[in-house]
Amino acid sequence: MARYQVMHDYASNAFGPWFTGAFVELDPEQADWVNHDSPGTLERIDPEKQAAEKREAKAAAEAARRKAKKEPIK
User: How far apart are CA 73 and CA 64, in angstroms?
Assistant: First the structure.
């Protein structure tokens, strides 16, 4: 199974309804079928990129919290 982001609203007899911005987990063959039925519906999420983005967001949130409390950065 792989994780995909829905790039535009989609529904069929087999899948959905999904709305723009949602995340779904599908087998690559299923995602290929959806994108064949409606090109550009699904964009595969790179798990390493997603993990890096989460780490960056967490670090930014922690820095903002420290700045608001005026705590030194460790």
Answer: 11
Amino acid symbol at 54: K
Q: Using one digit for the tens of pLDDT, what is the confidence trace for 10-63? A: 999 999 999 999 999 999 999 999 999 999 999 999 989 888 888 998 999 998
Vertex 60 angle, CA 57 and 66, to 5°: 140
pTM of the shown model: 0.67
Domain boundaries, given as residue ranges, for the chain: 2-69
Length of the chain: 74
Question: Could you give the CA distance from residue 66 to residue 46 in angstroms, rounded to a whole number?
Answer: 30
Identity (one letter) of the amino acid at 65? R
Query: Are the beta carbons of 73 and 66 closer than 8 angstroms?
Result: yes
